[in-house]
Design brief:
heterodimer, A: mainly alpha, 14 helices, B: alpha/beta, 4-stranded antiparallel sheet, 10 helices
Chain lengths: ~325, ~260
């Protein structure tokens, strides 16, 4: 975090940045302005988004009993993105707070649709759930593309920039908008971690130890939609974090959601900050965070697929 | 604690899996559900556990209709071991067994001394104490089975419904599980278990329920149920008991028609 505060496109000496940091935000001066008004909110936003995506990824992997479940992969984030594009496109005059509300509703709608569809016609299984999610995801991605096709040059640039996921030019206003849904969402998921553990053994076992199935599922979906909705609303879609981070944490944090959710949240925040830092330090300006995480996440996902097949066969 | 059920009927795609099954189980009883494959044993236990909301008929647990209990209240009264044991989850064995205490603890309260005792005792009884820290997904079939059984015991419920608890256990662990079940009945709990090994059912259960094609055909002392003509029809096997008490099973010759 410190490194992220100290690095940036304007040329500040490390000494100057540190001084500005410790003098607090009320101290006048250019350094203070850069560190506290430009970099700090960005760092906070990135950390929150990383935590939100990782915590909800952990919850989804338990809920769907599948190591490859992830709110981005299963189309939840696409629903949020579509809602955001809709707002940016049709209601450009809407106040800033409309965006996170819309992304939350978009995420929640897809989550509920996913559960309803995967349960239709009997017991949901892993394959149908994943497929349903991926298909819903591509449906909403197509809707988003349609919106892009219909937009004019100026809007197009804006939308594409937003859709590639990033934390450029985020202010304290953005922090204030994203923090409540994200923190609330993570808190909700954390509070039902015992349910998640039981659900990870399957519906029958969860019910046998006294988990109210429908309520548990709905609470997890709402929590996830809050966290992911908040994240998408402030950062655009940032893929693969929720998929990768829980897997990185499981070997040393165990599979119990009670420990895995907080550990993943912290690790996700750190990882995304690192990615953001890398993209700022080494990549040409304008390469967005979401592009980088996808570039790194796809190979990891493939590795996971191969390993899964090996362990089965 | 008493559980009773009346006129249970379950149909799936027009086929009756269970038809009009009634009965009850009192505290202190250990009773076996037997029957050929596809007779409806698992379905019966599932319905009794309240996991099949679309089943017709009523199940009354401790004086209240099974679906009217809140999930945790029900779990405090009834422990159910489903037949399907998932292996994918990488929880530790201790976490898995402790899950039996969820209904007592709710979402937030940490394990108290009483809960710890229940968990430790259950693991001890099933001889899995040494596996406590192991990742459950690395266990053998029999070890996993014992971990799930320990979860049921840790739950401390007065009614236990166990769907094929002997599956995957070696003969030594089968016998020790049976003595655990007898011990539970002795403590005053009601245990209903489904089983394929008819010898073990006859020797260890007080009574047996014979299910055939979704219908309850005989109920009575296990040994008598086994030698009944209904059992012969259900299994297609002639079942005899020698004077020395040994069981003999032989493929029945179909009745001349």
């Amino acid at each position: 975090m410190l490194a992220a505060l100290l690095t940036g496109s304007s040329d500040l000496s490390m000494h100057g940045a540190l001084l500005a940091l410790f003098h607090g935000p009320w101290n006048p001066g250019v350094e203070t302005g850069i560190v506290w008004q430009v970099r700090a909110p960005r760092v906070v936003v990135v950390a929150m988004v990383g935590a939100a995506l990782s915590a909800s990824g952990t919850a989804f992997q338990a809920l769907f009993r599948n190591p490859m479940a992830d709110p981005s992969l299963l189309g939840i984030a696409s629903g949020g993105s579509f809602a955001a594009v809709f707002v940016l496109f049709h209601l450009p005059w809407a106040p800033l707070w409309v965006l996170p509300v819309a992304t939350f509703l978009g995420c929640l709608a897809v989550a509920l649709l996913l559960v309803a569809l995967s349960r239709a016609g009997g017991r949901p299984n892993t394959t149908t759930t994943l497929l349903t999610g991926v298909i819903l995801g591509s449906l909403f991605t197509s809707c988003t593309s349609l919106a892009l096709l219909l937009s004019d040059e100026y809007q197009l640039r804006q939308l594409v920039f937003w859709l590639s996921g990033g934390a450029e030019a985020r202010s304290w206003t953005h922090v204030a908008l994203a923090a409540p849904p994200i923190l609330l969402g993570i808190a909700v998921l954390l509070s039902v971690s015992r349910w998640l553990d039981a659900l990870s053994l399957g519906d029958d076992h969860a019910q046998a130890v006294g988990v109210p199935l429908d309520r548990a599922r709905n609470v997890v979906l709402v929590g996830t939609a809050l966290a992911v909705g908040g994240a998408v609303g402030v950062c655009g879609p940032v893929g693969f974090v929720g998929l990768v981070v829980p897997h990185l944490c499981r070997p040393f944090a165990g599979s119990s959601s009670r420990t895995l959710i907080p550990v993943s949240a912290i690790a996700g925040a750190a990882l995304l900050l690192l990615a953001d830092l890398l993209s700022r330090a080494f990549l040409p300006a304008g390469i967005q965070l979401g592009v980088l995480t996808s570039l790194l996440g796809v190979p990891f996902f493939l590795h996971l697929l191969v390993r899964e097949r090996r362990s089965q066969g | 604690m008493r559980i009773e059920w009346e006129d249970l009927t379950v149909s799936v795609k027009g086929r009756e899996i269970l038809s009009r099954v009634s009965g009850s189980l009192e505290g202190g009883r250990l009773e076996a559900v037997i029957g050929p494959n596809g007779a409806g044993k698992s379905t019966l236990l599932k319905v009794l556990a309240g996991h099949a909301p679309r089943a017709k008929g009523t199940v009354v647990l401790d004086g209240r209709e099974i679906h009217r209990w809140e999930a945790p209240e029900r779990a405090c009264r009834l422990a159910y071991l489903p037949q399907f044991r998932p292996v994918a989850s990488a929880l530790s064995v201790l976490d898995l067994v402790s899950m039996g205490r969820l209904s007592h603890l709710g979402l937030w309260r940490p394990l108290g001394p009483q809960d710890r005792t229940a968990v430790e005792r259950a693991m001890e009884r099933l001889e899995i104490g040494h596996l406590a820290r192991r990742d459950a997904s690395t266990l053998s079939g029999g070890e996993l089975q014992r971990a799930f059984l320990a979860r049921c015991l840790a739950q401390g419920s007065p009614v236990l419904l166990l769907d094929e608890p002997l599956t995957g256990l070696d003969i030594g662990h089968q016998l020790s599980l049976l003595s655990i079940l007898e011990g539970l009945a002795h403590e005053g709990r009601s245990v209903l278990w489904s089983v394929h090994d008819l010898r073990l059912a006859a020797e260890h259960s007080g009574e047996a329920w014979l299910l055939d094609k979704g219908k309850l055909t005989v109920r009575g002392p296990a040994a008598q149920v086994l030698v009944s003509p209904q059992a012969r029809d259900a299994f297609g096997v002639a079942i005899e008991r020698s004077e020395a008490g040994d069981w003999r099973f032989s493929k029945a010759t179909p009745p001349a028609s």
